[in-house]
Amino acid sequence: MQQTVMAMNDADGVGEEASAFLFKLATGERIDGTLRQGSLHGRCTIINEDSSPLHEADYLSGKLHGESRHYLNGRLVGLQHYAMGQLDGPSQSFDAAGNVVCQVFYAAGQLEGPAQWFQEGVLIREGSFHRGLPEGEWHHYDEGGRRLESMTYQQGLLHGPACRYGADGELAAKRLYQGGKPQAPWAPVSREDAGPQGSRLERWLRGGS
For labeling, which of 43, 127, 185, 205 is most exposed (least CB within 10 Å)? Predict the structure, then answer.
């Protein structure tokens, strides 16, 4: 199914031909959108066989520009923002209950600004990025919201004090980093056990569990 419509150029009032299309895939999904001068332009939607949305995104001259929404079984699981093909602005993912799982920000395709991770609505990690790299203070919490660790990053490397906290919320151990390298072992500063060598937050940021 294809039909031709006319779109007006707001700048000069000149009509530009745009083609609205509906394309059915062999798997049953449908793609509904608009082409202008051969490129995707405006809202494009991928629709499941049961008519529920799979993906909705805005385009400008063939590039993602504006909101992009991802769905699973009819529920929203991802929401991103783009500017001329690059991630730009807030980006969120959601769990089955609709709670935010991850919330970060992008600028010109790179992570920039505050970042937060949640488990069943409870904040478990938070920090900041600058030009795609961890920067400044990062904090790690348990499922009950109790702070477990705090670490400091500079240009993506651990730099400065790192702290662990006991069950009572008091400082339990400290360690100093410079340029990503520990300057000494974890040093307990209270009766609380400082835990095994290797921070949970440090392992997570390096891709571990």
Answer: 185
| Cα–Cα dist 56/58, whole Å | 7
| Six token digits for residue 3 | 């039909």
Same domain, 120 and 190: yes
Same domain, yes or no: 21 and 87: yes
Range of the domain at 34: 17-98
Whole-structure pTM value = 0.79
Residue at 48: amino acid letter? N
From residue 128, alpha-carbon distances to 10, 125, 142, 155, 197 in Å are: 39, 10, 19, 11, 24
- Strand ranges (DSSP E) for 155-199? 157-158, 160-165, 171-178, 181-182, 187-188
Q: pLDDT tens-digit profile of 71-116?
A: 999 999 999 999 999 999 999 999 999 999 999 999 999 999 999 9
